[in-house]
Amino acid sequence: VAANANTVQWHENLGGDAPSWMVRPIGTGVTGAQSLAVADLDADGDLDVVVGAASLDMVYVFENLGGSPPVFERRDVGEFPFPDFPRSIAVGDINRDGRPDLAIASRSDGRLIVAPNTGGQFALPTTAVAPPTAGDGAVVSLMEFNLVHRGRSGDSSVEIASLQFRFERESENPHSPAQAYTTAEINAIIDRLLVYRDDGSGQFEPTDFVLASVDTLSLVDGVQTIVAPDGSPAARAQFGAMPKFFLVAELTADASSQTPRQFRVAHLTTSGSSAEDAVHDIPLRNDELPDVVTGLLTAGSVCPGDTNGDGVVNFADLNNVLSSYNQSGAGLPGDVNGDGQVNFTDLNIVLSSYNGVCQ
Predict the structure, then answer these.
(1) How is domain 122-300 classified at the architecture level of CATH?
(2) Which residues, other chains included, contact 172 with Cβ-Cβ below 8 Å and sequence gap of 6+?
(3) pTM to 2 decimals?
């Protein structure tokens, strides 16, 4: 750093027994540049530069955008919450979450501030849309989620690498936590598990593009991993885009005769699902969003007309069908058979079990 010139530079070693050096610019306008630290702050495989601008009470990050020689872009970390200027900067994983944080000291008042690195490079915000019941052989949308690019304009696309979902059921003991499904149990009620990419309508449709599918589930402690095809354009999101995906289950033809036949699904958005830089295949950090869990779904319900799960088929269920009649999409209250459409088939199911009490 050159405090008087307000610039930041690096000197490239050109090699040789008596090496010569080439001055390469990093950035300007850093008034009173006093200290710097170097680290891969955004986990993209190259080194970024943190600089303290003493006269401005500011800390800047110069992001390495790659290239040969590399190009840097300035990002503002923020202004000091105390008047003296930043005199010393260190980088390290202070809170042990796998991300490099900043420790910054001021010169005169002896204060130290830690700036934790809290941001992820992608996110998978998820919404549960599973209906309370679904008939034998039904195609059911369980969840919808977006792939969000947390980078900046010019960054490589983000690509889904894998997705993890946990299948569980209620414990026989109401005071005990939910029980994880076994592989045999889940395959008895789910014939196939698929991830679709939305075609732009915003609603699940069987004509949406299938990103990945699992014909025979294989659970580890109740968790199913779905691996996305590497390099698939359908698994990617550019900066500024938020493509939507659907987790869909095709139930078996005899799901209603299985024990157990009730399940719920949790999307392990932070601890399990992963993404990578689409160009360099570098793993990316996930934004820390809470896992999302669906309500309990009864597969092959003996009372399929019970759209609201209150144990009886009555006017409320009929109204659910009529209020969404001729509509299509995931999670519609009148979609009795879980095929993504509300039509005469759903109406007939409700009428055939009208005034019935569910078992």
Answers:
(1) Sandwich (2.60)
(2) none
(3) 0.62
